[in-house]
Amino acid sequence: MDQQGPISPPRGSGLRARLTVPVLAMCGMLMAVMQTVVVPLLPDLPRLTHSSAGAVSWMVTATLLAGAVLTPVLGRAGDMYGKRKVLTASLVLMTAGSVMCALSSDITVLIAARALQGAAASVVPLSISILRDELPPERRGSAVAIMSSTVGIGAALGLPLAAMVVQYADWHTMFWMTGVLGALGVAAVSWAVRESPVRRPGRFDVPGALGLAVGLVSLLLGVSQGGQWGWGSPRVLGLFLVSVAVLALWWWRQLRTEQPLVDLRLVTRPRVGLSHVAALLTGFAFYANSLVTAQLVQAPKATGYGLGLSIVATGLCLLPGGVTMLLFSPLSARISASRGPRVTLALGAAVIACGYGVRIADSRDLWMVILGATVVSTGTTLAYSALPTLILRAVPAEQTASANGVNVLMRTIGQATSSAAVAAVLVHHTSPVGGAPMPTLHGYLLAFAMAGAVALAACAAALTIPGDATPGGTRRARGGTRGARDGAMEGA
Description:
Helix content is 74%, strand content 2%. It has a two-stranded antiparallel ribbon with strand order 1-2. By secondary structure, the chain is an all-alpha fold. A hairpin with a 2-residue loop joins β1 and β2. It contains 17 helices and two strands.
């Protein structure tokens, strides 16, 4: 087993030490806002950029693909070269992408800029690793829970903010705003966050990074474009075949490389591997909430169920879920501290399923739509805050960034699969409204049922994770205390 590097002492009670958690949380929310702000623009971008709707969709796809590839790569780089250094580089790339979007209306430049912004997907796993290295054990759980929740909080804040900017100002203003916030984030991290001495030095696995990039891009491109290109089309089938072949070869090589990009022997341990499976399923279940809610409340009233809301009002409908995620983060940390993160994860997945039960019971009244979406967000808070805690307890300190990067990657794959699955369900359940095909209420209810079933599968996966272990690698008895060293791997 690899030996841990020295654990840095807590920074004390100075101003910079007190601002470490708020600064990292701000960066996490900024990353989520960046991913969300383009959504209100999508209907108008073909006209604004003089391009096709298919070309415009790549502004979302490029960010997804870049984030999926770069998250595990930058996580490994953070473990090797310094987490704050790589975190700062990610924020710089995100800021540069915002400035490029603000300065251009050319669709090619916009797609390239959005790909740069995908680097920001590594912000959360890198920040969680920094918190593990820098905070004393008694503060670590709540800080990690807050950091994990920033994804949902930022997304809930970003949608109505972007919608208001698009409605009342030039669309480039939105990217100038994110560019300025990104620059402030870079400055704040440089000032308030110190570099951790916990490293896993070695040689960076360039062939492994390239193989993972080709395999993931082929997989996610096939999943995200399958609805448009046709699931049985030669392009999509070819992408899936390339993905299977490349990832199989990549897996074989990673097991035989002395310094792999991803430690697959660690990944295949039950506590880590099952946590990744639960992350994929939870990502699927969570993402369907935002996708379906936004479409349902904006559907015209002529459908018989739609509310005909504007994009600004739609964002406000999702805002209570973001506020709930912020409020429930401390509760999640307390449950994990008393019962273990495995229980918190299972509880969160069960709450997500209950939220979809509310959606199935009534999706016509606005207050019930908001209630159901908020219950799903509450469950997501519990689940997402438990996942990194499970990883932190199961891997060595010098591998936390790369391990959390893989966990975030699994969430991303789950979200991409959710988007494709929801689109497939809604496309196959439509009826004409005003001469245009619109999803039926039955289609939406099927999407809710599908997401709820996946949430129950995530709950089952969580319950199969081996019981929480103390950092020293032994099982923790009820009411027992933790070991002195946080984060050592479980016994083989």
